[in-house]
Amino acid sequence: SWNSIQSSMIIPIGIDSTKFHNTEPPEQNPPLIVIDNHTPSEVGHMVERRIGSSYQLIPTDHKDLNDISVNKARYFINTYKTVTIKMLEAMSAETVVIALKNPDTESVIDHLSTGILIETLDEIPAVLNMLETDPDGLRFKIGRLARKKIISEHPLDEFVNRWNKVFEKIRPSFYTPSL
């Protein structure tokens, strides 16, 4: 029914919904970190050098993305200076988002509640250490709160309506052969 659709969550394209479970993820060895594919390669290499071999770091446009997507990652690093679809997807999948602090990311992430905001990429190793060693399971709490926030602030009907309006505006620009 429409009521059950309205209370449903959105699982974006790219997430295999048959493998999606709303439970704590299995332990990963090494833990997987997904980094936004807008990240310049030199920044990706710099982050990789800072975190060392304790983590597996892949971009969101990785060739094996069907097997390794943000819903399977422990962390998502957004180095882009805006909110990305992948960032929202990660939050909806209870993946902890670590993002550079700016007005856009601050509008979505509540620091230490629904994600982690950092001033510089140099902070990533300390943030990862804090999340990995917290005895109270902070990373799981952040993931759950992020998911709740995305579901409550981005309901399915609003999402569909927004995209319908975009397509209505651009539809006249599509080539349509005369009949």
Give an overview in words:
The protein has 179 residues and is α/β, with parallel strands linked by helices. It contains 7 helices and 5 strands; from the N terminus they run αβαββαβαβααα. It has a 5-stranded parallel sheet. Helix 3 links the parallel strand 3 (75-78) and strand 4. The longest helix has 16 residues, at 138-153. It is globular. It starts with a helix and ends in a 9-residue tail after the last helix.
Give a concise summary.
This protein has 179 residues and is α/β, with parallel strands linked by helices. Helices cover 39% and strands 11% of the residues.
Throw out a few tags for this protein.
five-stranded parallel β-sheet; 179 residues; alpha/beta
Spans of 5+ residues with little confidence (pLDDT < 50)? 1-9
Share of helical residues? 25-40%
Query: How much is the average pLDDT?
Result: 78
Strand order of the largest sheet: 2-1-3-4-5
- Strand content of the residues, in percent? 5-15%
What is the number of strand segments? 5
Distance between the termini: 37 Å
Largest sheet, strands/sense/barrel: 5 strands, parallel
Radius of gyration over C-alpha positions, nearest whole angstrom:
18 Å
Helix-and-strand structural type: alpha/beta
Count of discrete alpha- or pi-helical segments spanning 4 or more residues: 7
Write the H/E string, N to C: HEHEEHEHEHHH
What is the approximate shape?
Answer: globular
Strand and helix map with partners:
Layout: H1 2-6, E1 32-35, H2 41-51, E2 56-59, E3 75-78, H3 85-92, E4 96-100, H4 103-106, E5 116-118, H5 124-133, H6 138-153, H7 156-170
Parallel strand pairs: 1-2, 1-3, 3-4, 4-5
